Amino acid sequence: MPLKILREIVLFGACAIFTAIIGLIVIDQIAMPIYVRQGVEVAVPDLIGLTPSQAQAQLQDKGLRMKEREPRWDASVPAGQIVWQNPSALSHVKPNRTVYVAPSLGQRLHAVPDLHNRPLRQAQLWIAQADLTIGKVTEISSSEIKEGNIIDHKPNAGEKVAQGTQVELIVSTGPPRAFVNMPRVTELKLDEARRLLSSLGLQPNNIRYEFSTAYEPDIVIRQEPESGTPIKRGSSVLLIVSKL
User: Fold this and answer.
1) Distance between CA 101 and CA 55 in Å, rounded?
2) pTM
3) Residue 160 three-state SS
4) Which of 10, 85, 202, 244 could join 197 in a cystine, given CB atoms 3.0 to 4.6 angstroms apart?
5) CB 198 within 8 A of CB 235
6) Distance of CA 172 to the CA centre of its chain
């Protein structure tokens, strides 16, 4: 065999061997890993309650990525911790999949409106609009706040409170009035009873008549309130008067 032909055969063989080695390397280092990964899935970890940095570290360990969404209100998870994730925990996904998470803003708080010197009806409306509720309502006299308006309230205006918190109200009954003891006016004629009550600053303007054979007509047979009861000046008095 000529020497030239022998060299070509050797060179061809060396090239073939080199090509085969390169091919094996490509298959082993590139093609096989891709092929194998196509059938591999990983379980998504439970991220609820973790901080975003903790969640990201766990996802990286699994070969997953993380992307944050807008935070949301949730009273069950403290602010700053993951409150939502997608896909959900224990879902099986391919590596390099993005897991979306949303951190919690904590419990949503509502500002108490300023109800000072507002009419009670308006205060009730504003409290409802703020997702709060009416608590105890106390009436006291006031020379400065108009009757029926709010003197004070708790919690105070501007405080941040949880939804449904009760707002206690103190409502003005107007300027203080002196109290008088209700006199006895039964068995008096109606005109006499009226004069007596009016002289004390009371208003005998609630008159009802009942048939009675025990009294002459126009005699007061019952009264409300009863005699001796403290009553504010200007209050209305009920008189039951006899008739035939």
Assistant:
1) 9
2) 0.48
3) strand
4) 202
5) no
6) 28
pLDDT tens digit sequence for 141-193: 888 899 899 999 999 999 999 999 999 999 998 877 678 889 999 999 999 99
- C-beta separation of 82 from 49 below 8 A: yes
**CA atoms lying within 13 Å on the CB side of residue 171:** 19
Q: pLDDT tens digits for 63-94?
A: 999 999 999 999 899 999 999 999 999 999 99
3-state SS string for 221-235: EEEECCCCCEEECCC
3-state secondary structure at position 161: strand
Measured CA to CA in angstroms, residue 229 lies from 12, 208, 226, 232 at distances of 127, 20, 6, 10
Which string of b and e fits 97-135 if b means at least 16 CB within 10 Å? bebebbbbbbeeebebbebeebebeebbebbeebebeee
- φ, ψ dihedrals at 122, nearest 5°: -65, -40
